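Record format v2
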Amino acid sequence: MLLIAGTVPIKGLPLTTGSVSRDGDYLAVNGRQIPCTQGTGTMIGSALATTEYLGLEAPQVLVVGDDGQGNGSRQMYRYLIDNAGKLTPEVLALHYCLPDISLTRGLCTAIKKCSRRPRLVADAASMYAAKAADLASEFDIFTPDATEMAFLADPNATHPAYISRHLFDTDIARTPQLVAEAYRQNSAAEVLLIKGAIDYIAREGEIITRINDPDVPALEAIGGTGDTITGLVAALLYAGLEPHEAAIIAARANRMAGRYARVTPATRVREIISHFHQVFREHLCQWSGVCYAKGENDNG
Amino acid sequence: MAFFKRKQNTQFEGEGLVLFNEVQEAMKVEKVLKAAGYAVKLVAPPPELRKGCDLAVAINLVEQPGIERTLKQSDVAYVSISPLNIATSELLEIVRVTDFGRWVMVKAGNMKLTFEKESGVIVNTSGGGCPDIPLLHIELLDKKLEEASRPRDNSYTLCALMLDRALERAIEMVQEDK
């Protein structure tokens, strides 16, 4: 099971679980409509597009409304803590929430008691909480952007709004130094996918790949283009790829979908997701060596 | 409130903290104290009190009695006022601008807001990870900069505060252009 957990922008939505499917421009979970906009909805939509293409079981999701006051976030954490042993997902991806250090610790403790440890992915505030709780190394993949990378490298910051000025000012060329610093402080997951003008993939302290092609600068302005990458990563992990392989393909696929969608800074993220199947059809076999899906171009 | 209006301090000293349960309360108190003429600053609370996304207001501890009186009269919630004996981190104040030709992206901390130059309409917001950000994304899209509701007035998190700073700078840029 691929389980994706996060808050969604629906005030008052109770904790809702189930398999996700499409419902026009929305996602459907247990009779509820979830908007496929920036945040957890985009991450789920991206993961669903990937599992559909690969012929895998659709993601199971755990979503809850939260307007920023944290009530939904705390319900989400407590549900996961209470049910981690029963759910036993193969991949657990955590996303938008109000970061809570003690509940993050509780969740990591509950996961350690599972009969089979899931692969753990964190982005957004779930990543902030994991770092602030000194539990980053329990995770398989983080997907920070450049500012969040500086946050991971800053020993004193508990939120990206507090990172030191000299780290925020850091040129993207210094990302490898920030990566080394974050690993040195135990503030990084096993694999980091750092999103930016150049996407960096790091594993256990070393940059293993830099991706800058195709160059689509407008992606940075579009709300949800980090969420699409995290959804891709989670689904590709669920498909059986190693964390660094999933990260590399996710970064490439997101850029290529941006090019196919001819994005501008005004593009909405669902237009990018709608191009993932085309990207997979034309490139996945070449990128991954996995050429079993119907219709793929195995000539690269 | 006018009774407590006082001359703005020319140099901020700090040394004291107002502590809160909620980020929104800290933002309200900052506004109230600034309006009353106090020099204050939003900062990270001491590590042992942090939850990961919270905020405190740094004050000049010498002014504690007046500040307490002002807060009481303003009916705003706070946990306590305490001496600052542990180093705090300052909120990131840097704003960066990227010109995309027809559009401009303004970045404050981890939050980005993009608007169309000619119309002043917000076409995208991105970044962040706190739960009010997707709500703000939906609320801000397609609004004119000067007509958009301010994130700091109806949201709760540091991500929202950074988005508010991006919006504030974008509004300034449009006004400077006029």
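The two ends of chain A are 30 Å apart (CA to CA).
Chain A touches chain B through 62 residues (CB under 8 Å).
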